[in-house]
Write a structure and sequence with these properties.
The chain is α+β, with helices and mostly antiparallel strands. Helices cover 32% and strands 27% of the residues. Strands 1, 2, 8, 9, 10, 11, 19 and 20 form an eight-stranded mixed sheet that branches. The chain has a seven-stranded mixed sheet with strand order 6-5-14-15-16-13-17. It starts with 15 loop residues before the first strand and ends in a 26-residue tail after the last helix.
Length: 436
């Protein structure tokens, strides 16, 4: 009696979700979300891919500067934004061993927004997502990680993405925008050359609770400096978000010295804050940011544009990274939207975005590099007393000059503007949700 063996059936080919949009933006950070909001407002169909399921990551920039507040005001969103829990800072101060000094006085700026705001970035991004999702032209796909570029005839035509549940998809678009940060995957795949400038420091990032009866430090925003040490505190309402600078490459040495030594070091800078400092119970409470300072020589290829940290990683000096990214997005939206509505974007238009934003980037990075080389590097080099920088003494003697660093930090070089909202950008629909 003969028998037959059933051949195993071939596994079904995985389903690839394909879609088409005028623009696809990779990265749901400040650059990506602002660009998505502005393009949708101008009647351009846009998809934003964010690899995480939400925006809640603790290690993100918190400062929203007057330049960004002004853009929000031009969009009619500033009043609603300022309803978010936030802290307003009119002056940035530094406490040295010789006393308190004002570095920048934002009250001397023109316009209604004469202050910095400290807002947890997850709240800022959630706010932008909510407002953008009211447009029928906007779609946010969370839990969708871009894994590669689509190309045709030497031109980038979109992206491939993967989801945490094993799904895959493709979004074809007239323009692909990489806003996926300083470790941009799309930048690496595009083969664009990064010019690196280096940095003398890394940052230890941790929270200090505001204990009952704890005396608040007399500074905020810029911080406390002393021999070989620099600490920045950001007021997040119930706790201080703290950034402690160490020489690059010495994080392992700090950890090897032990947590007790680290807490003792903090108390040298924060006398009277024993209870908050004691709340650091493990090195798991302390995260590390490896500081980078770099930029691309070229921000585009046919069909591809890079903005924000993907095009230029900034030093944390001045807290300007978020706001430069937002300015990139505003310039890109203004220059790209008319062409995207026509269905084509020549490479010369992408080059115009680069030309528009390269000057503010270069000048800001030069200032950051000068501060790193002439001040931060020397400060962190040893354990000797540090004299108060002459510029701080000058600003203290002539307060009117405090408006100059306020303008550099708060408004920057070549700040961007947005036009009044067109009628086709005013229609609303339900908010977008997680990709399924």
């Amino acid at each position: 009696m003969s028998s037959t063996r059933a051949r195993p059936s071939s596994p079904a080919a995985p389903t690839v979700h394909r879609s088409r949009s005028d623009a696809v933006i990779v990265g749901g950070g400040p650059a990506g979300m602002v660009l998505g909001l502005l393009l949708a407002r101008d009647g351009v169909d846009v998809v934003v891919l964010e690899k995480h399921d939400d925006f809640f990551r603790d290690f993100r920039g918190d400062t929203v500067h007057p330049s960004t507040l002004r853009l929000l005001g031009e969009l009619g969103l500033a009043e609603a934004f300022l309803q978010l829990p936030h802290q307003e800072v009119e002056r940035l101060g530094v406490t040295t061993d010789e006393g308190e000094f004002t570095l920048a006085d934002f009250r001397r700026l023109p316009g209604p927004f004469r202050f910095l705001t400290f807002v947890p970035q997850w709240d800022f991004l959630s706010f932008l997502a909510d407002r953008a999702s009211r447009s029928p032209h906007f779609r946010l796909l969370t839990g969708a990680e871009a894994v590669g570029l689509l190309r045709q005839d030497g031109r980038v035509t979109g992206v491939r993405y993967a989801t945490a549940d094993g799904g895959t998809g493709e979004v074809s678009a007239t323009v692909t925008v990489a806003a996926d940060g300083r470790d941009s995957r799309l930048r690496a795949e595009a083969g664009l050359t990064v010019r690196e400038f280096g940095a003398p420091m890394d940052v230890l990032w941790f929270r200090l609770p505001k204990g009952a009866g704890t005396t608040a430090p007399p500074f905020g925003g810029v911080g406390r400096l002393t021999r070989g040490r620099l600490l920045v505190l950001i007021d997040r309402g119930e706790y201080w978000q703290s950034a402690y600078l160490v020489r690059k490459g010495t994080v392992d040495d700090v950890r090897a010295a032990g947590l007790d030594a680290f807490r003792a070091d903090l108390l040298r800078l924060l006398p009277g804050m024993e209870e908050p400092v004691a709340a650091l119970r493990s090195w798991d409470d302390v995260k590390v940011l490896s500081v980078q300072l770099d930029r691309l020589s070229r921000w585009h290829l046919p069909g591809l544009l890079l903005i924000g940290d993907a095009a230029h990683a900034m030093s944390p000096i001045g807290g300007v990274g978020v706001n430069l990214a937002v300015q990139d997005a505003a310039a890109a939206a203004r220059l790209l939207a008319p062409w995207l509505r026509r269905g084509r974007v020549p490479s010369r238009v992408l080059a115009r975005v680069h030309r528009r934003r390269v000057l503010p980037t270069v000048l800001t990075q030069r200032v950051q590099r000068a501060i790193q080389q002439r001040f931060v590097d020397r400060l962190l080099a040893g354990d000797r007393p540090v004299a108060t920088p002459a510029v701080l003494r000058l600003l203290q003697r002539w307060p009117v000059l405090q408006g100059l660093p306020a303008r550099v930090i708060g408004l920057g070089v070549l700040p961007e503007h947005v036009r009044p909202a067109p009628l086709h950008g005013l229609r609303e629909r339900a908010g977008a949700g997680r990709l399924t």
